[in-house]
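During the second year of the project, the team shifted from modelling isolated chains to modelling whole assemblies. The rationale, set out in the original proposal, was that interfaces cannot be judged from single-chain predictions alone. As a representative example for this report, we include one of the complexes processed in the last quarter. Its constituent sequences, exactly as entered into the pipeline, are reproduced here:
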Amino acid sequence: MKARKDLGLTFLKMDFGVELLANTPGALIGSPNWDFQRQWGLRDPAKGNARSYSLTQHPFTGLQITDKGLAVLCDHVSQTRDAVGYDIPLAADHFGHFDVTTAIRLGNALEKYQLAWLEDMVPWFYTEKWKQISDGINTPTLTGEDIYLKEEFIKLIDARAVDMIQPDLASSGGLLETKKIGDYAEERGIAMAMHFAGTPISFMANIHCAAATENFVALEHHSFDVPWWEDLVTGIDKPIFKEGFVKVPDTPGLGVTLNEKVVKEHLKKGEMYFAPTTEWDAIDSWDRTWS
Ligand SMILES: [Mg+2]
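Output from the structure prediction step:
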């Protein structure tokens, strides 16, 4: 986080959750289901890099964090705050799968670290559970990266279930739909962060949408460590992203042109340019429809 801040970023987000408690006796009641990630060879609690990425939804895991576990998580956030200070927003995500009561206990324990938001503490479609959490803690709550189209955002906003929303423009229905989502939230006093993990094409669509709304707070960006990421497009001043901000281009369209040469250089091994993506034709591909 400190290194990210030193890059000039003006907003930070970190992941932390029950995986930090995997090797601490007495920190968790019940056992997180590590099997999903283990089966994919991604993470393993024995190696200390586990994540509770279970296919079992939060209310059904029976997992609880003890006072001892909460103390470990608070110490983690406290050390992060010591490193980055309190003059920069710091949001948090990926806590693991546990129910509302544990979410509220965690939210209350973390209150003093003044986090910008707590993300996806339960799946987005549990409107009432979200409202219980939001009413029970004094840190802003946020969800939305898995929601398609504005109608489900409207339910959350009308119920005052979360403090902030976070559509992913590439999967929420595109630029115009996300603008509608943002406007609906703005008229009801709800802030909008934007979830994003993709190419500079999608990034620039997000930039234009963000610039056209008044409740925009922050746009996620996952590619600082990819040296050729900005080379995927041309026709815009580089660096596109500078000290936490992006200059909105006034050239036609998104304001960037796809650099086909660079894209082709970075295709997955054996993959053709603009290969068919039939895996996305089914409702379930490799990912879940909730976080
Ligand atoms: Mg997230």
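The chain has a mean pLDDT of 91. The radius of gyration is 20 Å.
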